[in-house]
Amino acid sequence: MYVTSSLFIFKIIHNITYRIMNIRKIFIITFCLSFIYSISAAQTTDSASLICLYNAKYINDMQNPQKIKNEEMILLVGEKYSSFYSYTNFVVDSLQNANPIEYMPQAVVIDGGRRHRPPQKRLPQTEYFDRFYIERSSGNLHCLTQILGRNYQYNEHLTTPEWNIMDVTLDILGYRCQKATANYKGRNWIVWFTHEIPISEGVWKLRGLPGLILKAEDSEKHYSFECTGIERLTPPRPIVKNNSVIYQTVSKKDYDELYKTFFNNPSAYLEHVLGGKISITSDKKREYNPIER
Question: Is the pTM for the entire model greater than 0.85?
């Protein structure tokens, strides 16, 4: 079936995806992934044979713990790499590459001067900008991210959590899952993985079990992820990085400090990256509650 308007396609995708969130297969995402083939500025990292959707709930502000954030996340698993990031960002990338004139800022000449015109159409918004690309054999992670419109990247080697596998089971999306626990990066995690999908990957940076992680939650219930759909991709679809964007390379430690400063004190962050005295007036106080401590 051929449709000339990619915007029309993604409106359909957006509406249908939320209706099928609780079914085992999520075939509709295959249509999204097909757009990646046409991205001229994309770097193919690997080909994904499995795609999963997760609903993430988290409390990132301890000054306002009643405000629980919700985000749909996407996991792509290939032979060599896995990728985990916001499904909204996935849709944004696809829209921008399918219709750059409508969805990306454009450079225009006005009165002899070069200026930037904002996008013609508004894009969906997300607060989760981290995009993880993990080399499965080594555990080396490459993260592309953003803070207040400024692009950063960092590299990190992931150690495998010391899992305690328990003889407790739970059915998730029709899959028999087994319970495991571990203290990892400052939090006590309870996860459920399935031997029926013997892939040692999962949500965020949690991995290293003899099966795919379908559910994860820290003991304080600040962060949780639950799988809402799974599909095996035949043929496989590419895992790509958009290399048309320039990223500033920082250490993981520096990135954590930058984000904490931005979250707790936006004025201090802007002073750091732009220089000079900047003041942002706000009555709202925030206290960053990171997923890893």
Answer: no
The 10s digit of each residue's pLDDT in 177-191 is 999 999 999 999 999
**φ, ψ of residue 87 in degrees (nearest 5):** -65, -30
Report d(CA 253, CA 272) in Å as an integer. 16
Whether residue 124 contacts residue 91, with contact meaning beta carbons closer than 8 Å, is answered with yes
Which CB contacts under 8 angstroms, 24+ apart, belong to 241-244?
241/42, 241/43, 241/45, 241/133, 241/144, 242/39, 242/41, 242/42, 242/43, 242/93, 242/97, 243/41, 243/42, 243/43, 244/41
HSE, side-chain direction, 13 A CA sphere, residue 68: 10
Q: Which two tokens stand for residue 122?
A: 């508004």
Q: 224, 218 in Cβ contact below 8 A?
A: yes
Strand partners, 288: 61
Q: Which residues are registered as beta bridge partners of 227?
A: 54
**C-alpha span between 187 and 55 (Å, rounded):** 19
| CA–CA separation, 132 and 134 (whole Å) | 6
Backbone phi and psi for residue 236, each to the nearest 5 degrees, phi listed first: -60, 155
Taking alpha carbons only, the member of 291, 240, 213, 230 closest to residue 90 is: 240
Query: What is the per-residue pLDDT across 137-160, written as a single tens digit (0 to 9) for each?
Result: 999 999 999 998 899 999 999 999
Burial class (CB in 10 A: 0-12, 13-18, 19+), 118: exposed
Maximum separation of any 2 CA atoms in the chain, in Å? 72
Joined tokens for residue 245: 């964007």
